[in-house]
Automatic annotation (TrEMBL), chains A, B, C, D:
<dbReference type="Pfam" id="PF22725">
    <property type="entry name" value="GFO_IDH_MocA_C3"/>
</dbReference>
<dbReference type="InterPro" id="IPR051317">
    <property type="entry name" value="Gfo/Idh/MocA_oxidoreduct"/>
</dbReference>
<dbReference type="InterPro" id="IPR055170">
    <property type="entry name" value="GFO_IDH_MocA-like_dom"/>
</dbReference>
<dbReference type="InterPro" id="IPR036291">
    <property type="entry name" value="NAD(P)-bd_dom_sf"/>
</dbReference>
<dbReference type="Pfam" id="PF01408">
    <property type="entry name" value="GFO_IDH_MocA"/>
</dbReference>
<dbReference type="GO" id="GO:0000166">
    <property type="term" value="F:nucleotide binding"/>
</dbReference>
<feature type="domain" description="GFO/IDH/MocA-like oxidoreductase">
    <location>
        <begin position="120"/>
        <end position="252"/>
    </location>
</feature>
<dbReference type="InterPro" id="IPR000683">
    <property type="entry name" value="Gfo/Idh/MocA-like_OxRdtase_N"/>
</dbReference>
<protein>
    <submittedName>
        <fullName>Putative dehydrogenase</fullName>
    </submittedName>
</protein>
<feature type="domain" description="Gfo/Idh/MocA-like oxidoreductase N-terminal">
    <location>
        <begin position="12"/>
        <end position="110"/>
    </location>
</feature>
Length: 359, 359, 359, 359
């Protein structure tokens, strides 16, 4: 839905299921030629790269353990890749993937979806222009309640693979949403995290992975930060909230009210920005389709990432060195987020020992 | 974007401009066969109805004065119609259109977009189930600020035709947004307006049509209501807000925060409903694509109307008497909203005299 | 509580009940000398004006029908008066009272409590300084739900006298809260209402007075307005909300979130002001006791009116012509609000006929 | 203001300044007999305890280093004590004070003001009644921006003593507001913190004490928590926010919107409670003075603590073993909050080492 929203991209082939019959059935519901519905990614890549009208890129929307093998196969076959986050199942894989991306010179983007919202991009511009002054404190939280109960034992598919280390990798909540929170704070502030002290917990008895995380952070410039992620915060929906405090001003953005950005200042009135305002930055305006006051949401944010990605693919047709817009997260953010996850898990195992993010 | 979101509908032809060259250029940006880009609707209808793979329906997205002629031509040629509101340029035309719809037995839907939001549909179910008790008071407001300045004299296209009686019809603000407010309150409450007393004003000097409206209403059951619509409410964006008070409870919905519905009760805590909750009505769940907390917006609401419409078209292929889902507004709502507009203008000219809506 | 909050005023005498015993009992709970607890206001005024340490002013907190007789008796005896609104039981009484105030040269203030909030005073300053430009539209609403049921027949004292014409006067909802809404809009905008068209309803069967009011307004400068007041808006608490739209900007204030004032502008970001900010007007700062972020509420707003009133009494000790601060509503606002009430009732009886406010 | 609000308490004596002249001048503005304005607390206690109409209790509102000596002197002279928090300048002093309280059997209360809000008390009742199920996660934050600049070097008195270790003790932000946050979470949840890992920072160059704190917590029942306190969060006012997540439901309360309490549940609609509702717990209703929708604020919350304290003093006149209402924080909470502060500072110095709160 997001990929096709702007008319630049068309879904024409896929490996929709490991069961060939189911894959073909899915193709039909998508209005795709059955011949291009494959039973696995190897088959798909092999067949599509032989067609004159073959696919330009692969979108990886599988459980995490398949992210690396599919991305590798696709890029080695000359295809670009748009992958779900996290980039890979663990940090070492992310480094491997980085090598592959560099070696194959393919476009590689990660759907850190929240970076597609216009006001997240406005927030980033505000930080870049130095309007807040030096960053002094960052608070990010990502609170969900959907794993309050042991859904993975109650037949819920999304919960099953996400809490299964074999499919999800070493991180539960930290890998599913913690990395979004981490990515968002670095994306907006432009300020890298230097080290962290984390506590991961499994609050629902019998669950194999963490479902609640807290971390204290220190940024490269010495500023402190706090990251909280939880999937047992009963009643919370998809509560990703970022607050950034600088020397001169601060900003706050909340994913469930995504078309508003709140700014506060030293000694002048608070301000609220709205998506669609003519006076926003080009980065924000470029990410909005509708007039002021006409809400855009998650699909549109997602579509912004696909749109930027498609533009890079079009440019590649002109210039082989065309690269992704800086607004789109790629392998660099993928590696950092995997480092974050692995170091957070390590820190938590070491009783919250401060752990550097460098690698 | 909205039409194609769910994959049921594909844009394959159009009269995109009165200039044949521009129409073809537009086709290209939409990825449409140039041969199916026409210079006017007559040509399009003639050509498309001859094709085996011709269009199933026409979407009318022109200024108001063309709504009737296009709808008539399309339906008489056997095509279904999805039209922008208002249905026609005046009330008499709406009655004519009703006859045409009935005579041709074509599907006719109006994009009263706000009725596509899941929580508007939830609100309607709540009223239908009688949870609020008998309705006692309704307040609806639709506040915008974009015509605070005389944009129509500053080269803004949308403002130009909307404030030009030749293209917009007899209503300015009342026709552009007042009818949305009116439609929403009848849609949700299921309670028809019986009579009204209105005041329309033109607050920006030199503007040809009203830009601010107030109306007192009385419903069939005797309950009073207030409708306010303004396009000179500086700083407002697209502020459509509905509040319904019954004997036992009340509800409030606001278009700029569309995924939340507030309920208040006699002697028990206020409640807030969120789009995507498992315990909402089927009507609301059917209108949601994403999990709880993932905002859907205007495009998705619009798409819900197209999706319902496409289902009726599919059903027509099985049963010639298949009709539109009751969730979608059609010619009946079109006639009522034109009656509302014409009676409000009449009442205002008669110094706010109470005017019945019946016809 | 409000009168004594700032230490300028002390409650030392009263007619707390028509029953002398009850009056004395009440005095005890207030820590007042029993000798100064009277069985009626005549007795109180007679006795207190004979004492060297007698009272300086009378606070009238009775049902409406007693407002005029007590005020008259007090002022004719040389005492100042702080009265609950409405000033009197009807408009003619208000004119009489105005004569008495002028003749006796006593200080007379009305507890239009909401005018005591710091951000209401800020809003007024913003209008005065012309920051919004010429006013184009005003919307005021005062919504309560406490009379959703026929409480007056269920033994609730406050509901009993308020819905009894003999004690409350000719207005129900319009007199109890409609006049607050009216007063607030004139107080903040400084723009007098010229004429109105009103609809008053009694929605609860058997109730003697109106419990729901709507009015369309026209201001002296031609701008339209809407006033809504209801006591059967189930679930609403004490929802007084004012929105003022000018040519350049707009403001919104809501009584249940009184320490915030929202400003919106043509082509620049929305702003939010908070009570206690150093950069607010003197009028607002003068009405705040605590640092930023420490909520003040209804009692403090009330106390601001008492404090201003006490300052005028102190000044009278120096200068016999000292008058009330312009921030405090007096007999002029009292007469206007009674005119509003009477004209609204008249208009409603005449089926909403436009009725001038002049007198 | 708060002490006198309900009429149970009267300010009759004080040591208002170390300068006898200034103390007498202050007395005059308070309307107090000059003879009872003393130059220091020793003098005051000596004189007042000799009077038949001497004071019943002392309210300590000095910088922190004087809390213990004054409390000791007062209690040893037979007076009760209401003290500003923190109880003392360090943990050892708090233990000493606890002995004094126990030995003298005087009433000792701490103005943890936020525990006086009606909806904080409602939140506590909800936790007590087990409505949320076992607590799984607690997040508390107290964010202010007033020390964003080095005010202590710009002549601001409040900033001066608070950032001076000689007057404030060993804690800056942690002692000024961190302890409020800590106290609030234990007060509401009834769940004691077992251990913590803290990071304290001084973000404004040259400041002598911490101005920003983060802590990860573990409760006795194993649940994790996060505490954030900052005085350099530019643009924040007095942002104390508590969120408690249990197995079945969660609650959120925010000090700047104190009359609202939000509840969220597993599989049913969110709820909002409002101060003044008839269906709240007795604890909340007892702490409210005004009808629904009439905001009460900081002064009223403060007054609730004084009122409860005064009731205990009255009861002592009947029964020498009468004790403080459980709603009021006393020496136990004082000791715990000092332990929290000292352990947090210790943990921070030990690079965030987990530190037990037990003593």
């Amino acid at each position: 839905m997001a990929a096709e929203l702007d008319g630049n991209i068309e879904l024409v082939a896929g490996a929709f299921s490991q069961d060939a019959g189911k894959s073909k059935a899915a193709a039909q519901t998508y209005g795709i030629d059955e011949a291009r519905a494959y039973a696995n990614y190897e088959e798909m890549i092999a067949a599509e790269t032989k067609r004159a009208d073959g696919i330009d890129f692969v979108a990886i929307v599988t459980p995490n353990h398949l992210h690396l093998p599919i991305a590798r196969a696709a890029m080695e076959a000359g295809l670009h890749v748009m992958s779900d986050k996290p980039a890979t199942a663990n940090f070492q894989e992310a480094l491997d993937l980085k090598n592959i991306v560099e070696r194959t010179n393919r476009l590689y983007a990660l759907t850190f979806t929240y970076t597609g919202y216009p006001l997240v991009r406005e927030a980033r511009e505000i930080c870049r222009r130095g309007e807040l002054g030096a960053i002094r404190k960052v608070m990010v939280e990502y609170l969900q309640g959907w794993l309050t109960q042991p859904l993975e034992k109650m037949g819920q598919k999304q919960a099953e693979w996400r809490s299964d280390p074999a499919k999800s990798g070493i991180g539960g909540c930290i890998g599913d949403i913690g990395v979004h929170a981490f990515n968002l704070l670095e994306y907006v502030t432009g300020q890298p995290v230097k080290k962290l002290s984390a506590t991961l917990r499994t609050m629902v008895a019998g669950r194999a992975l963490d479902d609640d995380c807290s971390a204290m952070l220190v940024f490269e410039n010495g500023a402190p930060g706090i990251l909280a992620a939880s999937q047992i915060a009963v009643g919370e929906r998809n509560g990703l909230r970022l607050r950034v405090y600088g020397e001169k001003g601060s900003l706050e953005w909340y994913q469930e009210d995504p078309n508003r950005l709140q700014l506060k200042w030293l000694d002048r009135p608070d301000q609220t920005l709205h998506a669609g305002s003519a006076f926003l930055s080009e980065a924000a305006r470029h990410a909005t389709r509708l007039p002021l006051g006409h809400p855009e949401g998650f699909v549109e944010a997602f579509a912004n990432i696909y749109r930027d990605f498609s533009h890079a693919i079009f440019e590649r047709q002109e210039r082989p060195d065309a690269s992704l817009s800086g607004s789109v997260c790629g392998i660099e953010e993928g590696v950092r987020s995997m480092a974050f996850m692995e170091r957070a898990i390590g820190s938590s195992k070491a009783d919250g020992a401060w752990t550097a993010l460098e690698y």
